[in-house]
Automatic annotation (TrEMBL):
Enzyme class, broadest EC rank: lyase
Function: Could possibly oxidize fatty acids using specific components.
Spans through the membrane: none
The protein's name in its UniProt record: enoyl-CoA hydratase
Catalytic activity: a (3S)-3-hydroxyacyl-CoA = a (2E)-enoyl-CoA + H2O; a 4-saturated-(3S)-3-hydroxyacyl-CoA = a (3E)-enoyl-CoA + H2O
Keyword tags: Fatty acid metabolism, Lipid metabolism, Lyase
Organism: Ideonella livida
Amino acid sequence: MSHECILTEVRGDGALKTGLITLNRPKQLNALNDQLMDELGQALLAFDADDGIGCIVITGSEKSFAAGADIAAMAGFSHMDAFKRGHISRNWETIRQVRKPVIAAVGGFALGGGCELAMMCDVVIAADSAKFGQPEIKLGIVPGAGGTQRLPRAIGKAKAMEMLLTGRMMGAEEAERSGLVSRVVPAASLLDEALATAAQINTMGQPSVMMVKELVNEAFESGLSTGVRYERRLFHALFGTEDQREGMGAFLDKRKAEFRHR
Ligand code: CO8
């Protein structure tokens, strides 16, 4: 499928490959307009449905992962425009339906909706040039894609409150220290590192990979006892998979597991 605001390709040479999505509105620093969000939603669902794909990587340009929702497109909205046109929900939640791991490879700006998009991904790898922020307060609005909910969960209340109230940006080092990103890498190797992480995940048994994602998200969204009970049930279910036989058999045979992803 051809797109105007994103590029898609398949990378890797293992049994499972990686779907790479590059946000591509360079003149607007990858500001997220409706078309881009629609294309991103379609691409995410297509990769998720493709049995040959194990992980998805979303990246932007060296200068900007995404500078937020498109301010020019929404500046004239009335309350009803925002509400009725669905801008406030249009495809912004699609990423949450994806069951395979999604890795954000963030270089440059990840602001407003761009920071929220990164936080909706499962792993965030940042270039040393990355800058994260929720500057909506400076525009007279508040975040609309989960920023006020996910940022405090990721970095704690005090720091999140300060960032949300002042709109200040956080550099990559601080973002790693605060738990917003999993790793900081040199800007020149950002994509390679993200693809290598995806390739490593792609060698694991797919049922366990998808269940880990589901369970960690459960930890984010439910209470401890519900999450632990849920984890126990999925743990039991994995004993019905070939991957469990292979993984444990390989350990006992002292060889490397070759998962068949069933
Ligand atoms: N929307 C539209 N255009 C943008 C955006 C944006 N968010 N960000 C940058 N651009 C455009 C600029 O207008 C400029 O265009 P032009 O060349 O035609 O003048 C071009 O990109 C380059 O930008 P700058 O000249 O400003 O570049 P600088 O390097 O000087 O500055 C910054 C880069 C700091 C990133 C600056 O552009 C900036 O502050 N951008 C706005 C950041 C922002 O406020 N983001 C939050 C937007 S609101 C939001 O995301 C709400 C999310 C709600 C989601 C709701 C869905 C459910």
